[in-house]
Specification:
Shape: globular
Amino acid sequence: MSNVETEQSEQHGGAPVAGERSTRAPHVDVLAPRDVPLGGPRAMRVRRTLPQRARTLIGAWCFADHYGPDDVADTGGMDVAPHPHTGLQTVSWLFSGEIEHRDSLGSHALVRPGELNLMTGGYGISHSEVSTARATILHGVQLWVALPERHRHTERDFQHHVPEPVRIAGAEVRVFLGSLAGDVSPVATFTPLLGAEIVLWPGATVTLAVEPGFEHGLLVDTGPVRMADTLLRPAELGYAGPGTDTLTLTNASDGPARTVLLGGTPFEERIVMWWNFIGRSHEDIVRAREDWRNASDRFGTVEGYDGDRLPAPALPNAVIAPRGNPPRR
């Protein structure tokens, strides 16, 4: 997925808990989404909750787009031409529909509901994403993970994983990264991470054991859902900082509520994020853009896509400054 919201960079001129539980409810910040066109002004729209001025990252999660349910017959679906990435991993997770993925590593895969596709950009990769003829309703999330400094020039990679659903009292959990509810994903990451889809039964309350060193974000797809004592409406993202060993989620609706729980250790590095690139300086971004414009081997070639690749947008007339999270309370 390509980030067309290029102005967002700052510029200068566990298992269910049994027995004793934590009594301190975490403070939860509510991050509201904003609508962004995907791939151009006439394309399908997505709801973006990361990054924003109030918070750049949750763990190493640095980008969260939530889209659908989108009727492909009305909108034309998804057609994102080949575009580049550096310094990050992309995580594709669908609730419904089907997307064809092609990349310059030679991967040709389908993104299906409940199946993880994780692509590592590292020093450079390019890929395309197109909804298939079988996709009638597109609905899911596209997430990015920032790579730490010592790994941000790593080799291209692509991993696929189908997590088994885990039934617990009041919910069903699919763990695609990290560990939760007694399940562990085999997918390797460069920083400690958690990614899981949690479907809560109507009116259910679930308390989950989580890593106390992690910060967590709960993206609500259908709801509303309470995260600790805070009500989150559909498309909102709730943020809880480190320091708690449990998270309590309550379905405040009379139907199933679907959420995506993200977590990780606080990412202390400041990053520069512009278009589809993550670097550490303005110069990193300028270099990556020029390499893409010049069709450098750095990003390779996507075979099998019928059309031209995405052009790089113009750089802002200012120095793009590194960003980090606000100081922790």
